[in-house]
Amino acid sequence: MKPKDHVENVLGEPTTVATADDFRFNLGTAADAPIIGGIVHRANKAAFPVLSGVACFTLTLQPGATRQPHLHTNANEISYIESGRARVGLMGPGGQQHLFELGPGELAFQPMGWPHWMENIGDEPLVGIFMYSHEQPATIDLTVASEFYHEKKT
Fold first, then answer.
1. 29 SS3 class
2. Is the Cβ–Cβ distance between 106 and 49 less than 8 Å?
3. 1 pLDDT more than 50
4. Model confidence pLDDT, tens digit, residues 51-73
5. Is the pLDDT of residue 13 over 80?
């Protein structure tokens, strides 16, 4: 007989019974992940194990700061601006370039694999909420990749 704290999942495999606390997460008190000019808080599978197929981050950028160009190899992204003003740059696979501004209540879509960046163009901190279509979004920082290329080339 199985212990009471285990049930079978849809595949008939034993799994631990979740509690209500397993399904909630305080993003505001998540571990700080400093970036140049700001800070990120992550609710991904590593921090919030119950997640499956989604993740959510917050970003706070100081005035004039930019979240460096990057892309996600395994996830689409939706960026929601809670407060402040942002300028967003987005590059498509055919070389198309899009530049637009976002304010409170507005959101943008960044497709998987498309390089993008965000700049705080306001006088106050920019606060954004970012949702991903993967529980552990993989990020490649293009500035770091470029520096690596130039370092190895010389």
1. helix
2. no
3. no
4. 999 999 999 999 999 999 999 99
5. no
Other beta carbons within 10 Å of 20: 6
Domains and CATH numbers, the chain: 27-153 (2.60.120.10)
Query: CA-to-CA distance for 141 and 14, rounded, in angstroms?
Result: 39
Structure-token pair, residue 45: 């599978």
Helix (H, G, I), strand (E, B) or coil at 16: strand
Is residue 104 within 8 A of residue 84, CB to CB? The reply is: yes
Phi, psi (degrees; rounded to nearest 5) at 93: -65, -20
Virtual torsion, Cα 72, 75, 76, 79, nearest 10 deg: -70
Percent of the chain with pLDDT over 70: 88
Token code pair at residue 105:
């209540």
Beta bridge partners of 140: 71
Alpha carbon 31 to chain centroid, angstroms: 14
- The Cα angle at residue 82 between residues 81 and 87, in degrees rounded to 5: 30
User: Which tokens in the block code for residue 154?
Assistant: 């010389």
Positive or negative torsion for Cα 131, 132, 137, 141 = negative
* Among the listed residues 142, 141, 73, 76, the one whose alpha carbon sits nearest the alpha carbon of residue 111: 76
